[in-house]
């Protein structure tokens, strides 16, 4: 045990410490002197039975045990709630993250959230979460720390955007709900994160200097309407889908740390959205005891070391013994502590985790030790293999999340090239091995590696590969099958210096693989792909008139080479996960017809896009890091539409090897003269006032495959609220429906959309409710945010 604690301490110091450097903040920044009251759980929305069990459990706990239920402790997982042997409670294990079961062996690396969103395929997104969730369960982890609904993608260069889904809240909301259901159906708790406004990594936490000066974390200053219509929207969907926990984020919101922000936690999350589960702090994101507990934080992590002392096992915490004192002296009501435990235990009973839950994989500490170059001094224990046949869904989703951006003269699918050129440092197997090795904290780790394909980003959301199929190895296998040869150069510096002496004869087709590393802990600094990408593409294209570019990236890139006439085709393959090479070969040779659509906008110029990350080079005041979200709702395509800027490739765009058409669009009302606002007397359910989700409109269209190949497309529905009866700052149009449809050549299908009250309302900051504007609402359908084929209008409420 001593050795295990040493490893944990080592791990914490080396991996998490500089993420925080945090300690108590003596200052209080709350601008609200009248915070919302504590919001208690009721078990409403399906957890009534679990509530009865949770209450019975609480009745048997003494005060020390109650406190231990809400305070992280030592253990084999990244987050641990200690067992209570007296009651046969075996504890709770929480593990990273949204893309893979991190810091473990014999697990799968799934496509990133961004890739999943680019598929626009509800079912595949669900299947991804179901498979990932089953790996958590089989490893003995009760809580998978995902899905990610924030960052949403305010900053195109945000370091963690790839862990989440899309810069559009509707698409992200659908993906959150599908992922929550997938996790729960696998018997594992979801932890929807990061709540909220964690849009940048730079100064996401406070920093303490040697002299003790404490520079506070960045404050995301978000107005009420923007919060509701953008950043909160996906979390509302997650809560409606029953998400069992929510992780509060590192940053401050309106000057108050997210994990001690009563407006956010008691007021918006628990009261307005009716959230029944528990709020857990991001690791080291707790900055107070009494204040946080009363503000709505239900569990602190990692707990035993979440104050200044940074050695594991010391038991120091803002909760722990401090919380016991606080309950005894009356500053935290016992009813509040009971509710914290109730919220933690309801999901546990709801998902049946009290029965037949697998034990924690005993290899956990051995893998951790290996990752940090430590040794346990005892023979290694091999890991439990939990991968099953998940490679299949990974391969499929990797291809489905690949977006075909350009395809001149039907260059793709490849016909039968006999001489294939593969170029770029993203093509081959990584020379450093199968795991991104961190040199310390996320911030200080080497920013990406040179030679080797990139299928997943860095930080807590990454994973250790047990298998990784690189593009070069998959293309070589394919070439062998079809009797072709493969030539390659995988050194970008050689390519950037235009040295092609090793290539003869010039290949029939040259495929360039580019990558963009993105990681928790820091934001990206370049729009272009990494490693001299532009010089690499231009040189290959000069050499080879038939050039195809494939990007593996954690977010938005500019593509200065996109219009190069020798660049015949472009594929944005995002982070596809461990089957990367197989997924791209499926697309290149046409075994899979591309159907991915951009879940963000690619701009022509960097300057068209940027909402810069707040980055202060010299800070003198402790409170200087302020991020004012003054653009309001105008992020991503909403910004391009409002400023009338033509992007290179717009939100929702993506080509296919076949063609599609839309016809017969119609939109109609389901309810005559509905009230303008939801009925305030309705009991709140998880997700908020249930009226918000009642259907008000229906729309339909017919989609046809007009080409000669089978394929899928995504029919997208956008609405435009009447600009003269909504407040200023309302986007020109917003996504409010999509459907992925598979069609054989010549086949047609009807597509139906249902729009709810929330879909056609805006957040009225004065009335503090969603309101349907008076006048004509335009509804359009199409194949992207700018390729609209059918348009109609409907007046829900006349003027
Ligand atoms: C609560 O029960 C635990 C056994 O689980 C015991 O060790 C502890 O002393 C008890 N605490 C109180 C305050 O009774
Ligand atoms: C943050 O401040 C803005 C501006 O005063 C206000 O509109 C919004 O409601 C506040 N949000 C929270 C969660 O305090
Ligand atoms: C209680 O919290 C304070 C910080 O407010 C910390 O210094 C102290 O170590 C904590 N005590 C325990 C027993 O965890
Ligand atoms: C109660 O205990 C907590 C935790 O030690 C402490 O922060 C707080 O100041 C105490 N309050 C009173 C009224 O004694
Ligand atoms: C591509 O197709 C266009 C139109 O069919 C033709 O004019 C052009 O020469 C073709 N380019 C190449 C490189 O084949
Ligand atoms: C922030 O500024 C520092 C120092 O000027 C720089 O090194 C860093 O790359 C910047 N970060 C971002 C995300 O721009
Ligand atoms: C880019 O290429 C130049 C020389 O062509 C080289 O000095 C530099 O190290 C390269 N940078 C990267 C990131 O590969």
Automatic annotation (TrEMBL):
Signal sequence, renumbered to the chain: 1-22
Annotated compartments: Secreted
Pathway, per record: Glycan metabolism; cellulose degradation
A GO cellular-component term linked to this record: extracellular region
The keyword Cell cycle is assigned to this record: no
Reaction it catalyzes: Hydrolysis of terminal, non-reducing beta-D-glucosyl residues with release of beta-D-glucose
Stretches assigned to the Fibronectin type III-like domain: 713-785
Keywords assigned: Carbohydrate metabolism, Glycoprotein, Glycosidase, Hydrolase, Polysaccharide degradation, Secreted, Signal
Pfam name, any one: Glyco_hydro_3_C
GO molecular function, one term: beta-glucosidase activity
Record-level GO BP terms: glucan catabolic process
Coiled coil, from the record: none
The enzyme's E.C. designation: 3.2.1.21
Keyword Iron: no
Record's function text: Beta-glucosidases are one of a number of cellulolytic enzymes involved in the degradation of cellulosic biomass. Catalyzes the last step releasing glucose from the inhibitory cellobiose.
Family stated for the protein in its record: Belongs to the glycosyl hydrolase 3 family.
Protein name: Probable beta-glucosidase G
Organism for this UniProt entry: Pseudogymnoascus verrucosus
């Amino acid at each position: 045990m001593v050795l295990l604690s040493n490893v944990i301490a080592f791990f914490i110091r080396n991996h998490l410490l500089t993420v925080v450097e945090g300690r108590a903040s003596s200052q209080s920044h709350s601008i609200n002197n009248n915070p919302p009251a504590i919001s208690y759980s009721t078990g409403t929305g399906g957890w009534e039975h679990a509530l009865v069990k949770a209450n019975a459990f609480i009745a048997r706990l003494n005060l020390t045990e109650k406190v231990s239920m809400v305070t992280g402790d030592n253990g084999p997982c990244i987050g641990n709630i200690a067992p209570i042997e007296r009651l046969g409670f075996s504890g709770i294990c929480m593990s990273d993250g949204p893309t893979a079961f991190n810091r473990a062996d014999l697990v799968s690396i799934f496509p990133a959230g961004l890739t999943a969103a680019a598929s626009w395929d509800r079912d595949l997104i669900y299947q991804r979460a179901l498979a990932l969730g089953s790996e958590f369960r089989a490893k003995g982890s009760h809580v998978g720390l995902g899905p990610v609904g924030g960052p949403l993608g305010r900053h195109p260069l945000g370091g963690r955007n790839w862990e989440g889904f899309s810069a559009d809240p509707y698409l992200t909301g659908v993906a959150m709900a599908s992922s929550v259901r997938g996790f729960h159906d696998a018997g594992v708790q979801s932890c929807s994160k990061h709540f909220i406004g964690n849009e940048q990594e730079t100064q996401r936490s406070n920093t303490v200097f040697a002299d003790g000066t404490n520079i506070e974390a960045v404050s995301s200053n978000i107005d009420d309407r923007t919060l509701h219509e953008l950043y909160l929207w996906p979390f509302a969907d997650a809560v409606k889908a029953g998400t069992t926990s929510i992780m509060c984020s590192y940053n401050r919101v309106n000057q108050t740390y997210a994990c001690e922000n009563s407006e956010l936690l008691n007021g918006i999350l628990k009261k307005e959205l009716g959230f029944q589960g528990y709020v857990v702090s991001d690791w080291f994101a707790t900055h107070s005891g009494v204040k946080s507990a009363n503000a709505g934080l239900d569990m602190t992590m990692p707990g035993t070391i979440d104050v200044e002392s940074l050695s594991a096992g010391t038991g120091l915490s803002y909760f722990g013994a401090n919380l016991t004192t606080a309950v005894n002296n009356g500053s935290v009501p016992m009813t509040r502590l009971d509710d914290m435990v109730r919220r933690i235990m309801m999901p546990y009973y709801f998902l049946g985790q009290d029965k037949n839950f697998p034990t924690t994989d005993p290899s956990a500490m051995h893998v951790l030790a290996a990752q940090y170059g430590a040794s346990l001094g005892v023979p290694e224990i091999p890991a439990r293999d939990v991968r099953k046949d998940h490679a299949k869904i990974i391969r499929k989703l990797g291809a489905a999340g690949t977006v075909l951006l350009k395809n001149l003269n039907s260059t793709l699918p490849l016909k039968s090239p006999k001489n294939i050129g593969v170029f770029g440092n993203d093509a081959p197997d990584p020379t450093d091995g199968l795991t991104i090795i961190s040199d310390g904290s996320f911030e200080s780790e080497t920013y990406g590696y040179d030679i080797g394909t990139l299928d997943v980003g860095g930080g807590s959301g990454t994973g250790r590969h047990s298998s990784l199929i690189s593009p070069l190895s998959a293309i070589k296998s394919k070439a062998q099958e079809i009797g072709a040869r493969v030539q390659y150069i995988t050194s970008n510096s050689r390519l950037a210096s235009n040295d092609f002496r090793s290539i003869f004869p010039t290949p029939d087709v040259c495929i360039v693989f580019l990558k963009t590393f993105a990681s928790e802990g820091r934001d990206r600094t370049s729009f272009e792909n990494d490693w001299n990408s532009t010089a690499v593409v231009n040189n290959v294209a000069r050499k080879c008139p038939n050039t195809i570019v494939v990007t593996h990236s954690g977010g938005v890139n500019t593509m200065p080479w996109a219009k190069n006439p020798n660049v015949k085709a472009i594929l944005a393959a995002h982070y596809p996960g461990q089957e990367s090479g197989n997924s791209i070969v499926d697309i290149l040779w046409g075994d899979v017809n591309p159907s991915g659509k951009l879940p963000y906008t690619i701009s022509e110029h960097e300057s068209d896009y940027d909402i810069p990350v707040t980055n202060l080079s010299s800070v003198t005041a402790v409170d200087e890091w302020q991020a004012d979200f003054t653009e309001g709702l105008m992020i991503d395509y909403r910004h391009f539409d409002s400023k009338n800027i033509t992007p290179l490739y717009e939100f929702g765009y993506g080509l296919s090897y076949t063609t599609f058409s839309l016809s017969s669009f119609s939109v109609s009302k389901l309810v005559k003269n509905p009230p303008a606002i939801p009925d305030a007397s309705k009991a709140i359910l998880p997700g908020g006032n249930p009226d918000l989700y009642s259907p008000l409109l229906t729309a339909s269209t017919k989609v046809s495959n007009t080409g000669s190949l089978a394929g899928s497309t995504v029919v997208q529905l956008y609405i435009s609220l009447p600009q003269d009866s909504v407040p200023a700052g309302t986007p020109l149009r917003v996504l409010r429906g999509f459907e992925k449809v598979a069609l054989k050549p010549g086949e047609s299908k009807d597509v139906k959309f249902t729009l709810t009250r929330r879909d056609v309302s805006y957040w009225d900051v004065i009335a503090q409710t969603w309101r349907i504007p008076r006048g004509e609402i335009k509804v359009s359908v199409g194949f992207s945010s700018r390729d609209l084929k059918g348009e109609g209008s409907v007046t829900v409420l006349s003027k």
